[in-house]
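Same chain as my last thread, 249 residues:
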Amino acid sequence: MSSWAAKRFWTDVNVIEQDGGFAVQLDTRPVKTPAKAPLVVPSRDMGEAIAEEWRAVVEKIDPNVMPFTRSANAAIDKVAIQFNEVAAMLAAYGGSDLLCYRADSPEKLVARQSEGWDPLLDWAHETFGGRLVHTQGIMPVEQDETALATLTAPLFSASPFELAAFHDLIAMSGSLVLALAVTQRRLSAPDAWELSRIDETWQAEQWGVDDDAAQVAEIKRTAFMHAARFYQMASSGNHGKIDLKTGLD
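reply #2:
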């Protein structure tokens, strides 16, 4: 029987070490991905987070409320088998990074962007050796290819689980630099999210909150926070035990 059967069939959920990682068992049956691959994850923290989702199932399995299981499935079934394509797709964000496109007015918004984003571009240069340039307006600015190569190298050296997390960190924020700042612990996930929302926050302050836009933003924020936790779990072998609520050790 597939572990993705419609209804709960197990009593106990356990995390066991095997195959160089950690697997989740439902009674004695291993959890498998939708593609029927063994669901073996790189850290016990991640295994326990997945196990908690399976323990929480009351009757029917609902993947929509099992984010760690979904992310692990994506890492194994999708990212691992097309790693270079996914890394290249995410690397393309570096050429149009959110932090590089600034408003030309009003003055207070320009100052807010500069105050929030300039230190991160400086940090990326100091840390990785790649300097991205910024411009005002929406006209594309050409970035130095060498700078892009150094800034995107961490994507190609990531594990499939780390790259799966990078996907949402980059896609939800629109910024490779913000994603790197979170994974390198230069910024907390909440701080990085707020910096990605400078323009939207400004508009809300001027014109009020758009309820529909706020709902979409909350979905993205939740995905961003989850991705930060998932990344730290994926790399927790180098950092120690992870707090499942904060994603920090």
